[in-house]
Structures are given as structure tokens and as C-alpha cells.
């Protein structure tokens, strides 16, 4: 797995590189700003880019803008975004093009090495990984009129774990229910969110995006 890291904090940048190399992963380049990151992506064409949301010079949205641009140039590349805080609008912007091979984690998750590496491998393999804390904060907002208000508490639990990128078996294990029960909950979620079967969309990703877009619009 070839990886480019974009992080303006040199300690975190080098720490990430050391961690990944210790796992026999190929960190081909690191960058301290968005411009150097895009040059590195074009030069090395990595399998995965790990990108900080806030980068120089303004430390607002340079990282997320660069991540979106990198995905436009290289749509096959996976992107794992890191943020110190839950930034809902940025998550929506990044996931708006479909959600495959994308992750959004809080930086504190890096210290939980096994969880961080699991998320990295998940997005590299074509999946989605959204930090549980981000999902929890979004799902606990109780504004009237949202489609997610149709969901039962258990369905919300299932959707939250879907948003983290877990499959049915992993969800069942986390909630101590059967695979069949999870399957029924997911079918109900799709029905309540008006997501019909289609060959052109991943309904799991669409369910999460539908919530993020609605929460962002009302936020």
C-alpha cells in the first residue's frame, strides 16, 4: 500500500510515517501544506492519502479542499481525512461524490493504533470509515422534520455502525443480536429513508450521506 501523508504538525506527520512504516506500509511522501500534498499525489499516485483538514496558510479548510481536488484528479485513490474536531460541513463536502474509499477520523483515533489501522485498510479496500464520535454527534441532534426522525432507536444504532463502515456480522456482534435482526433493521432503514434498490448506488453510503446533507442544511 503506497501512502502520502499531508499534515502540518511535523511531530504528528513523522509519527504517522513511523507508525505506518513499522506496519510494513510504504509511505512514499509526506507534506506540510496543501500545495506540496497535491504535487506528491500527482508524482507518486498513492493508493491512500492521509490528509489533515486544517493546513497552512489559514488553517481553515485547505486540507479538505486539497483532498477533494486530489480525488478529482485521481478518483481511484482512497482518502483518509484527520481532524482535531467534528467538522460536519467538511465531512459532507468530502463524502458528496459517493463515499467509496473515503474515511474521516478524529486525530485522537490515531492513538488507538488498531482502530486507526483498521480504518486505513478499510478505505484502501474500497470501503468507508467515519469516526464513531462524528456519527454520534450527528445522530444525537434532534431537529424536527429530518428523515432520520422516522428511525427507531435501534435503527439509529445500526445506522451509526453502518456509518463507521461495519458489515452486518460486525454490527450484530457489537449490538449482541443476530445477523438476521441486523438485516431486518437495515431493510427498514432503507425503506424509511426512501432508498429503493438500485445498481447505481450503495444504499449504505447513501443513507449516511442523506443524514449528513440534511444535518448540514439545517445546521
TrEMBL record:
Keyword RNA-binding listed: no
Family annotation (SUPFAM superfamilies): C-terminal effector domain of the bipartite response regulators (SSF46894), CheY-like (SSF52172)
Alphabetical list of CDD domains matching this protein: LuxR_C_like, REC_NarL-like
PROSITE patterns: HTH_LUXR_2, RESPONSE_REGULATORY
Modification sites for 4-aspartylphosphate: 52
Keyword Transmembrane: no
UniProt domain HTH luxR-type: residue ranges: 144-211
GO biological process entries: phosphorelay signal transduction system; regulation of DNA-templated transcription
Keywords: DNA-binding, Phosphoprotein, Transcription, Transcription regulation
GO molecular function, one term: DNA binding
Protein name: DNA-binding NarL/FixJ family response regulator
Amino acid at each position: 500500500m503506497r501512502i502520502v501523508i499531508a499534515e502540518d504538525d511535523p511531530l504528528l506527520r513523522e509519527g504517522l510515517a513511523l507508525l505506518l512504516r513499522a506496519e510494513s506500509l510504504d509511505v512514499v511522501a509526506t507534506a506540510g501544506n496543501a500545495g506540496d500534498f497535491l504535487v506528491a499525489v500527482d508524482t507518486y499516485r498513492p493508493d491512500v492519502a492521509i490528509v489533515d483538514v486544517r493546513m497552512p496558510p489559514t488553517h481553515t479548510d485547505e486540507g479538505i479542499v486539497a483532498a477533494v481536488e486530489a480525488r478529482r484528479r485521481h478518483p481511484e485513490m482512497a482518502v483518509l481525512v484527520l481532524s482535531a474536531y467534528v467538522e460536519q460541513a467538511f465531512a459532507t463536502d468530502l463524502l458528496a461524490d459517493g463515499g467509496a474509499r473515503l474515511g474521516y477520523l478524529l486525530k485522537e483515533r490515531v492513538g488507538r493504533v488498531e482502530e486507526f489501522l483498521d480504518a486505513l485498510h478499510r478505505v484502501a479496500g474500497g470501503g468507508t470509515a467515519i469516526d464513531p464520535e462524528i456519527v454520534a454527534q450527528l445522530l444525537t441532534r434532534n431537529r424536527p422534520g429530518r428523515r432520520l426522525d422516522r428511525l427507531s432507536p435501534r435503527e439509529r444504532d445500526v445506522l451509526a455502525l453502518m456509518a463507521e463502515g461495519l458489515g452486518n456480522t460486525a454490527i450484530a456482534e457489537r449490538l449482541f443480536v443476530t445477523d438476521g435482526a441486523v438485516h431486518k433493521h437495515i431493510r427498514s432503514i432503507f425503506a424509511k429513508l426512501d432508498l429503493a434498490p438500485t445498481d447505481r448506488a450503495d444504499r449504505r453510503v447513501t443513507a449516511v450521506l442523506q443524514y449528513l446533507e440534511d444535518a448540514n442544511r439545517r445546521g
